[in-house]
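Lab notebook, bench 4. The sequencing result for the construct came back, and we need a structural model before the next group meeting so we can plan mutations. Quick request posted to the team channel:

Model the 3D structure of this chain.
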Amino acid sequence: MEAVPVLRSEWLKIRTLRSSYGTLAALLAVTVAFSAIAGVSDTSDPEFDPLFTALSGAMPGQIAAVAFGAMAVSAEYHGHAIRVSLAAVPRRGRWFAAKLTAIAVPVLGTALVTALAALFAARAGLGSVADGLTAAEQIRGVVGCGVYLTLMALFAAGLTALFRSGVATLSVMIPFILVVSFVVGDVAGGVTDFLPDRAGQVVLHETYDGSAGPWTGLAVTALWTAAAVAAGAWRLRSRDA
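Done. Here's the predicted structure in token form:
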């Protein structure tokens, strides 16, 4: 089967998953809500970062992006649907690439809209405190936030193909991004600059310290994602459906 029909079929699968709409809606609602709340918080801290405050809702919101990527792939392993998919598309690399594309496009589109809405919602509360943000910084934050959330969704998709289980992926990723990464960060210092979540989140800050800048941090997250996707592709090729 040619690439375009494969992509169309994978997009149709994702559209017919009721959970897809729920997770994307949660991504928007949670991110904007938490950013709006952060916008009316105390701004007297000398290390206050208005850009990160405005986009801080992406921290809880990323759980929805991770869930979207995991569920889109794990649906293939329910009732052995993967056997039908691979019978229709014997070239497993082509099928997996189409699946990842069908995941990335809606997440990126939703994440960009979400980041922009979160920025506006938070700025309404921050008022003059955020006036120092330049247009370039805000554009970088919004675009970077969209790319970061998309990479996390693809990271989850790659791990789900590796584990052949969305539950296993969520059991690993959610505790990691909510707890482990911060605990390790407090203990290990600069080593955490290269963890997949913390590296990518640098792009959300107006000012930043450490060895990774905004785009370098996203590149680090992209490398982690590429490794997860490669591992998932290897598992898909090496094991019969």
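The chain has a mean pLDDT of 90.
Will bring this to the meeting.
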